[in-house]
Write a structure and sequence with these properties.
Elements: H1 2-18, H2 22-33, H3 36-52, H4 62-79, H5 92-95, H6 103-122, H7 125-136, H8 141-148, H9 152-172
Helix pairs in contact: 2-3, 2-4, 2-7, 3-4, 4-8, 6-9, 7-9, 8-9
């Protein structure tokens, strides 16, 4: 019976530690896989892996630790030939800001959102990854370096290049094609 109480305690501790970061994990998974359903599967696999190895977490930044696991789970699946494939564009109706009820403003916002998402999708994986982690998940350079396992200087360089490519793509209307 004590064994089961220990399992409940471990589950409760893990939930308290990991669940606040579920949105960030899904956001990263969504941009890695480019598909909502594959992102769900990736987050589920990553959280299962994180739960299994939660005893090995030695403190520090929980969000960075979880996002590292999401990233490793994705790249392990690619390496093992079980690539999570698909390409579903970001759905502004689901994730957009409903603050405006002006149809023209909504249409303009959706067009801008689609343009940005299309541009993001065209970025090379390493650039898209750091841009999503910085701009959408609001991670620090140090956290991004931890998640991507690259030096902070590389993170800063990739982020600057990603922003430049994204801006170029948006200005050219997708004519460069990366």
């Amino acid at each position: 019976m004590d064994k089961f109480l220990g399992d409940d305690d471990k589950t409760a501790q893990f939930e308290a530690m990991a669940m606040p970061h579920l949105d960030a994990a899904y956001n990263l998974a969504r941009w890695l896989t480019r598909n909502e359903h594959d992102a769900d599967d990736l987050v589920q696999s990553a959280y299962l892996r994180a739960f299994r190895f939660a005893d090995g977490f030695r403190g520090g930044d929980v969000r960075a630790w979880l996002l590292t696991i999401v990233r490793h789970t994705y790249y392990s699946a690619l390496r093992d030939g079980a690539a999570l494939r698909g390409d579903v564009s970001f759905d502004e109706a689901l994730h957009g800001d409903d603050a405006s009820t002006d149809p023209a403003a909504i249409a303009a916002s959706r067009d801008t959102g689609r343009s940005v998402n299309a541009a993001l999708a065209q970025l090379p994986q390493a650039f898209r990854e750091v841009l999503v982690l910085k701009e959408m998940d609001d991670l620090s350079y140090k956290q991004i370096a931890q998640v991507t396992e690259t030096p902070i200087g590389t993170v800063m360089s990739r982020l600057a290049r990603a922003r430049k490519l994204l801006l170029s793509y948006l200005k050219d209307g997708g004519q460069d094609g990366f």
